[in-house]
UniProtKB/TrEMBL annotation:
Its cofactor is FAD. Pfam families: FAD_binding_3, FMO-like. This is Flavin-containing monooxygenase. The lineage of its organism: Eukaryota, Viridiplantae, Streptophyta, Embryophyta, Tracheophyta. SUPFAM superfamilies: FAD/NAD(P)-binding domain. Its EC number is 1.-.-.-. Belongs to the FMO family. InterPro entries: Auxin_biosynth/cation_transpt (IPR050982), FAD-bd (IPR002938), FAD/NAD-bd_sf (IPR036188), Flavin_mOase (IPR000960), Flavin_mOase-like (IPR020946). The keyword Chaperone does not apply.
């Protein structure tokens, strides 16, 4: 079956939906294709139950749809007050070939689970899952669980596991900034007016005051400040949800890097060995755009991410765009709106005629 549209958007996550909203406002015809059976599938299907937005709501709004004034500052994944979307079920076996002038990559930087290569992992005797399949620690009560990765997902999953009575350990391989959400919110607000190094210095002082020296618990701060680090590498500060207190009490054990796995035994680089029933890999995600997009090299690198840095990352050649969230401490979604406004101004109306 053949169909034509002006703009084809690949991915119905927040970026794809935001793009569609902007195009609707501009009366530009478009179609969204989505590989899963719902919109915002990362949030609906691949996030743990207790998840709340890590950033305050004012930094996470979609264009043309502000959060209601009475919405919580940190929006929970599961809320009794929520938006509904009603969609037609298109689950048929019909293959549609779209012809489109403009193609927008909105398939996300979290499109596939990233699990490191570890010798012996395939023969691990217990259960090994990626954080995208973890829902709640309730089913792991009494089990020996190792969480690999100390980003926001890993630290929160470790807290959830320990709170549900799992004997929990976490692998902390690299330096990490641990913060509280109020400090990050303050930083994101201040950095709009004050140089980032000054703001970072303040944030680190505040966090040290809150947490004290965590190095004796195996958690070391990076030399670069939290907002600068995010800008340079994309690595976010960890927002503590109670994990640090459990680490200080010895309820969650901090372990170093894994060297290999033998049956149910995990060996660490420092020579330590421990048996685990479950390993949860909170080791991040990767883009899959390069697997479905052919000739996308004008815009994407080998990892399926934009070649150019913000604010020049969003446009490739021949009508190729990305609604992509590779921003530093800036609001992650709202720049989609400005990209689309620019696209409208520069390109689309001319070429539509
Ligand atoms: C645990 C966790 C916590 C987070 N917390 C925050 C936060 O507090 N604040 C924040 O701003 N961000 C947060 N993020 C970042 C998150 O990436 C964004 O919030 C947002 O989901 C990104 O939107 P997106 O539309 O770019 O990508 P996604 O939400 O990943 O959506 C991409 C969509 O494209 C679809 N897709 C992929 N490939 C194809 C294909 N070939 N064909 C068709 N469809 C395809 C996917 O199924 C998916 O529905 C968090 C992420 C995680 C994992």
């Amino acid at each position: 079956m053949e169909e034509q549209t002006v703009v084809l958007i690949v991915g119905a996550g927040p970026a794809g939906l935001a793009t569609a909203a902007c195009l609707t406002k501009l009366s530009i015809p478009h179609v969204i294709v989505e590989r899963e059976d719902s919109s915002a599938s990362l949030w609906r299907n691949r996030a743990y139950d207790r998840l709340k937005l890590h950033l305050a709501k004012e930094f996470c709004e979609l264009p043309h749809m502000s959060y209601p004034a009475d919405a919580p500052t940190y929006i929970p994944k599961i809320s009794r007050k929520c938006w509904f979307s009603v969609a037609r079920d298109v689950a048929t076996s019909v293959v549609v070939r779209y012809t489109t002038r403009f193609l927008i990559v909105a398939s996300g930087e979290n499109s596939a689970a990233n699990i490191p290569v570890i010798p012996g992992l395939h023969d691990f005797a217990g259960e090994a899952i990626h954080s995208s399949r973890f829902k709640s620690g309730a089913v792991y009560s009494g089990k020996n669980v190792l969480v690999v990765g100390c980003g926001n997902s890993g630290m929160e999953i470790a807290c959830d596991l320990a709170s549900h009575g799992a004997n929990t350990s976490i692998v902390v391989r690299s330096p990490v900034h641990v913060m509280i959400k109020e400090i990050i919110r303050l930083g994101m607000t201040l950095v709009q007016h004050i140089p980032v190094n000054v703001v970072d210095d303040l944030l680190v002082r505040l966090a040290n005051f809150v947490f004290g020296d965590l190095s004796r618990h195996g958690i070391v701060r990076p030399k670069t400040g939290p907002l600068q680090l995010k800008a340079e590498t994309g690595r976010s500060a960890v927002i503590d949800v109670g994990t640090v207190g459990l680490i200080k009490k010895g309820i969650i054990k901090v372990l170093g890097n894994i060297s290999r796995i033998k049956g149910s035994i995990v060996e660490f680089e420092n020579g330590r060995e421990s048996a685990f029933d479950v390993i949860v890999f909170a080791t991040g995600y990767k883009s899959t755009a390069n697997t479905w997009l052919k000739n996308g090299e004008s815009m994407l690198n080998n990892a399926g991410l934009p070649k150019q840095e913000f604010p020049n990352h969003w446009k490739g050649a021949n009508g190729l765009y990305c609604a992509w969230l590779v921003l530093p401490w800036m609001p992650r979604i709202s720049p989609v709106a400005s990209c689309l406004a620019t696209m409208h101004k520069c390109d689309v109306p001319d070429k539509m005629n």
